[in-house]
Structure formats: structure tokens, C-alpha cells
Amino acid sequence: MEGESPTLPPHQTGWRRIKNALHFSLEGLRACYTGEEAFRQEVWLATFLIPLSIILPISVLSTALLIASVLLVMIVEIINSAVEAVVDRISKDHHLLSKKAKDMGSAAVFLSLVNLVVVWTCVLWTEWN
């Protein structure tokens, strides 16, 4: 029935818990990839930038920073998509708080993209100057 709490499965521990957590994480990635155009674009950007960061003649630490900046964009996009899904689940009606939540999520994605550009620029400038 609507509004009833679902019955929770018994608490899993050990390898079973890890397996279940991995399964739910992969389901989340799949849902975001199939349902969010921006996430798909960021995945394709990552498939270019991550290998590039690995083959560039730079230090291991610089490579890690470049990869982390790419992954951060994807992480923030997933969180933004989750916020949007929850807001839409509550109501499709226009509401100031709904707009505020969605705009804040969008701003977080924007700042993660700015971070990516700054990190890549600083790392490449430092490594090649």
C-alpha cells in the first residue's frame, strides 16, 4: 500500500553485504547513465581524460590529481541526479524550495567542472613549465 514502509531484509554482514553493496552501486551507475544525459557526457569525457592523464609524461601524484578531478565531476553529478529524483518524487509542482534544491545541485556540478579545469590547467602548467 501507498505510504507503508517496505519490509527490510535481515541485516547482511561480511562478503554478502559487500556483494549487495556492489550490486546496488552498479545499479545506481546504470540508472544514472541511462537516465541522465549530463552523466553520459561526463562518462565519455572521463573515457578520454583518464587514459590521457595516464599516458602523459607527468608524476604519479599529478596523474592522481587529474583522475580525481574527473571522478569528482561524476560523483557530484550522481548526487545532483539523486537530489533531482527525490525532489521530483515528492512533487512535480513548481515550488521555491524544489527550485532551490535543484539549482544548488546544478551549482555543485558547475563548481566541480570549474575544479576540473583549474586542476588540469595547474597540473599541466606546473609539469610543463
As a percent range, the share of helical residues equals: over 70%
CATH class: Mainly Alpha
How would you classify the quaternary structure?
A: single chain
Number of beta-strand segments: 0
How many angstroms separate the termini? 64 Å
What order do the SSEs take from the amino end to the carboxyl end, as H and E?
HHHH
Structural class: mainly alpha
Number of domains: 1
The major pleated sheet works out as: none
Judging by the overall fold, what is the CATH architecture? Orthogonal Bundle
β-sheet strand percentage: under 5%
Low-confidence segments: none
Number of helices: 4
Would you tell me which CATH topology applies?
Helix Hairpins
Q: What form results from the Cα inertia axes?
A: flat
Query: What do the pLDDT scores average to?
Result: 94
